[in-house]
Amino acid sequence: QKEVEQNSGPLSVPEGAIASLNCTYSDRGSQSFFWYRQYSGKSPELIMSIYSNGDKEDGRFTAQLNKASQYVSLLIRDSQPSDSATYLCAVTSSGSARQLTFGSGTQLTVLP
Amino acid sequence: DAGVTQSPTHLIKTRGQQVTLRCSPISGHKSVSWYQQVLGQGPQFIFQYYEKEERGRGNFPDRFSARQFPNYSSELNVNALLLGDSALYLCASRELGGGETQYFGPGTRLLVL
Q1: Please, which residues have CB within 8 angstroms of residue A103's CB and are 6 or more apart in sequence?
Q2: Residue A102 to residue B42, Cβ atoms within 8 A
Q3: Closest partner residue to A99 among B40, B45, B99, by Cβ?
Q4: Closest by alpha carbon to A72, among A102, A98, A96, A42?
Q5: pLDDT averaged over every residue in chain A
Q6: Are B90 and A43 within 8 A, CB to CB?
Q7: Cis-peptide into B8, omega within 30 deg
Q8: β-pairing, B53-57 with B64-68?
Q9: Could you tell me which of B85, B19, B66 has the C-alpha nearest to residue B8?
Q10: Is the pLDDT of residue A98 over 90?
């Protein structure tokens, strides 16, 4: 069973702080990695994608990938109350369907 | 540009009934995938279709079926509904040859009583 594991949380950080979200995956053949944000009652919204080892920055968001350790993380700098949501880590399978396998999500609350 | 659209937005059914959910992908996207998300969990893969053929299937019973039409829209059918089928059903589209990114529609929330 190919799995994606996330810190279940919930995670609370004060406004302006850095939020750190972590994810590990079991399928060594995975090539594509994603972070989605999901507000309560809404569908997942793509935040970041990362395909190669290292860091990828987009505004206040930085994704980090380490394929050797099978580890993906998301850093949110200058956290805002509007960042309060569940963050889902997703990994593309190595099979032909290339489906996404999701973790169970980390609930983040940014306190004003 | 319009994103992925799904209908209906909400649905209430009783056990044993059948349901059909619909999805239209982003214009130009030929791949459609269906996911089921139960409360408190991440989405689980049900099906992937492109070029009107099933390309992948998750660990779901045969009560679940789907198809893709020539315009790349898709339907998900669930027969003999169980209480445990209550969930948010998500459709995602992907541009073939344009990377692995999947974009999700707003979902259909199904409640089985």
Answers
A1: A4, A5, A6, A23, A88, A89, A90, B42
A2: yes
A3: B45
A4: A102
A5: 93
A6: yes
A7: yes
A8: unpaired
A9: B19
A10: no
Is residue B27 pLDDT above 80, yes or no?
yes
Number of helical H runs and strand E runs in chain B: 0, 11
| Angle (CA) B9 B15 B17, round 5° | 65
More confident: A8 or A68: A68
Both tokens assigned to B76: 């998900």
If one counts every other C-beta atom within 10 angstroms of the C-beta of residue A10, the result is 11
The residue type found at A90 is A
Query: What whole-number distance in Å separates Cα of residue B22 and Cα of residue A93?
Result: 25
Element (H, E) at B57: strand B53-57
Task: For residue A100, list chain B residues with Cβ-Cβ distance below 8 A.
Answer: 33, 35, 43, 45, 92, 102
Which pLDDT value is given to residue B51?
86
- Residues 6+ positions from B69 with CB-CB distance below 8 Å: B52, B75
- Taking contacts as CB-CB distances below 8 angstroms, the residues of chain A near B102 are 100
Kindly calculate the radius of gyration of chain B based on its CA atoms and give it in whole angstroms: 13
Q: Is B95 exposed, middle or buried (0-12, 13-18, 19+ CB in 10 A)?
A: middle
pLDDT value, residue A45: 96
CB of B110 less than 8 A from some CB of A: no
